[in-house]
Amino acid sequence: MAEPESAHRQPGTSGTAGTPGTLTEEQAVRMLAGMNEVIRAGEEMRKLRAEMIKLFAGFGWTQDRIARIADMSQPAVSKQVAKHAADDPAPPMTLALGQYDGPWLEGRLWGLAEMVAETIDGARCARYVDALARGRKRFTPRSVDELRRLLEEDLRLRRAELPDDFRAAYDEIGRGLDDPPKGPAGTTAPVSAPASAPVRRTLAHQLQRDRLEAGRPPGGS
To answer: What pLDDT tens digit does each residue of the chain (221 aa) get?
Structure first.
């Protein structure tokens, strides 16, 4: 006796007219969405790395040095550098922590949250930080607000386990995000160089981590 047609369908699938047992468009969209996120994150990381190589070259670093730290071949670095050779040279970027444009502050927030997640077990911001690092989350006004909420909870509930400079850093970052300093004629305070938002976030993220790590006592957690 022939089995009913539905017995051959995958769990949770439904057939379409004339094509029993096939996936629905909705199911295909759900499956591909996750794949597209990974692909998109990969493309974004490749673009970010190319921009960082341009930045390092602007600092006067040799191609051999860049290749070593980027884990790339020297010819690959040379190709990236040559690709940007015709661009107008950007002014040297100021690597000062106290800059107040949105991407810079977002990078500092990310760096602080990452340090909190590494310092205390079970940090509420840990999963969100991991999603940002893996490209599963992107920096949007909504995601920044959510990261701030989680980080505020960690700083409030686990205050005794965190250095005082973590809270001080958050207060400074929060003030900048809530009320960005203004420049002449009411314009937003200028940034140090016209680098892309991802580059500025990446730099600020690392500088914030470096500042907090420098404030830790020797052998401290």
So the answer is: 544 444 444 444 444 444 556 778 887 888 788 788 778 888 888 889 988 998 888 888 899 999 998 899 999 999 988 887 766 656 667 788 999 999 999 999 999 999 999 999 999 999 999 999 888 889 999 999 999 999 999 999 999 999 999 999 999 999 999 987 665 444 444 444 468 899 999 999 999 999 999 877 665 54
Q: How many CA atoms lie within 13 A of 153 on its CB side?
A: 11
Whose tokens are 């006004």? That residue is 141
- Site of tokens 């016209």: 194
The pTM of the full predicted model, rounded to 2 decimals, is: 0.75
CA distance 159 to 170: 12
78: left (phi > 0), else alpha (psi -120 to 50), else beta?
alpha
